[in-house]
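Our consortium's second objective concerns turning raw sequence data into structural hypotheses that experimental partners can test. To show how far this objective has progressed, the report includes one record in full. It was chosen at random from the queue rather than selected for favorable results. The single chain below, 402 residues long, was entered without modification.
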Amino acid sequence: MIKLAASFVALIAFMPYVTAQQVVWGQCGGIGWTGATTCVSGTVCTTYSDYYSQCVPSSNAPTTAPASSTGSSPTSTASSPGATSTAKLNTVAKAAGKLYFGSATDNPELTDTAYVAILSDSAQFGQITPGNSMKWDATEPERGTFTFSGGDQIATLAKNNGQLLRGHNCVWYSQLPSWVTAGNFNASTLASIITTHCSTVVGHYKGQIYSWDVVNEPFNDDGTWRTDVFYNTLGTSYVTTALEAAKSADSNAKLYINEYNLEYASGKSTAMINLVKSLQAAGTPIDGVGLQGHLIVGTVPTAIQSQLSSFTALGIEVAITELDIRMTLPATAALLAQQKTDYENVIKACNAVPKCIGVTTWDYTDKYSWVPSTFPGQGAALPWDENLVKKPAFDGIVAGFA
């Protein structure tokens, strides 16, 4: 993905499927899509753009498919209502007993002084996640050659602002340099490469990071393991290798596995629960699960609270790590009102689960959202608009923490 390269971008066209019917919330069509095009009973394959269709529960499906955009569309209109609350998001989150409310960011937008001024307000954002600059292609572009300038810039910003920092990420199938994907390494060599990479990157930021997304998106939507270079060579053991390396490098950092489409009960969420259980049984360090939260206005799952609780019941913490709630453009007052409700409901779900420690949006403004470039015709997914003006979604977040 361009800009904030959310890990969720793989949902567009690259997920292998082995079932004849797609699961709820899974992709079922779009340009370049080669997977299942029919949905399980009770869901409807709903078109959101030429590039993306999704299996939506029948009760949530729109009566007509939204039209795809043929050009750039405004993410808001001059008459769109704004937020009315003067509260600060991190302040209300901490008052509700949470550790933080945060935002992702990326290095290119740090030249935008107005943007940085809002991001740097620790009453608004108590935590920052680097969108790209700690990923493998950024930190170890050549084997054994590590670069940390991008990650260091964001780490310094967070430190200067008194904000927590989340590390994102150590091991992910995407944004890998070709020397990893095309190296044709045997199992012992690749395991050593993972250990070196994770221990070096995590060790570089030792003492600076609250939590790491050590492993990112290990599963397909149906709960099978994603067949990437790590799984194909090492099987499931690569997860243990990465977690143990991270733990050795920084024993105080919380170690997470991060994944999308965990917000409802599915084969993927069951697979994640079973993975956590197996890691715990083996004595492998695992502290939390991140639910990314890339959602669609009007179709936000109602089971988020129970899903969060299903993970905390295992004795670990959870966080919503990449929240955005997109809509078909142009934004209207009705869509913005629904988005406000959707944000409120997601925040309420976290607020109701004691060990849901915080919420991070995948950037805070539509100006730098990954959505429009990935889902043509969609956008307006974040609490601030492209002009850095707070939207009704901001009020929804405040209400969710009340």
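The partners drew two points from this record. The radius of gyration is 20 Å. The mean pLDDT is 89. Both points have been shared with the crystallography group to help prioritize constructs.
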